[in-house]
Design a protein that fits this description.
globular; 3 helices; alpha+beta
């Protein structure tokens, strides 16, 4: 049975940002369904990055996380990732999730500060197993955080 996406979340607004859906992906045996958004700042709606929220849990999502974000270099340091991350938590809650995992490379200070600002707790810093779908030679250790919703 196909995952049912909500059209109510095609646009998500915050005081400073508008998140607009780029795609909704069903996933496969390794990747869970996800919403992928463009992050645009208000009022000019200039794109500043992207964020995804992945719904559900499986072996791979523990290492991949339920959320991924990127902010274009020119717009970093303005807490856009944190604001967008808080906004997409409503999507996860709507789909009945009571927790999410968020991961980043061990030394990605900006990312783990954002994750910790969300209130997520560090579960572990770990090597990535070779049977993880995103594994590659030399993949760095990852911080795995859990956030209760």
């Amino acid at each position: 049975m196909a995952f049912v996406f909500e059209n109510d979340y095609d646009e998500v607004d915050t005081p400073r940002l508008k998140l607009r859906i780029l795609t909704k992906e069903q996933g496969n045996e390794k990747e869970i369904p996800y919403y992928w958004y463009e992050i645009a700042r208000k009022p000019d709606l200039i794109p500043v990055g992207k964020i995804s929220i992945r719904i559900g849990h499986n072996y791979h999502s523990y290492y991949n996380g339920n959320m991924g974000y990127e902010v274009d270099e020119a717009y970093r340091g303005q807490h856009y990732a944190l604001e967008a991350a808080k906004a997409v938590l409503a999507v996860a809650r709507h789909h009945g999730m009571d927790k999410i995992y968020i991961t980043c490379e061990e030394d990605n200070t900006a990312s783990y500060r954002t994750i910790e600002s969300l209130g997520a707790g560090l579960v572990e810093i770990t090597e990535i197993p070779t049977d993880y779908f995103g594994w590659y030679e030399g993949i760095p250790r990852h911080r795995v955080y859990e956030l209760s919703l």
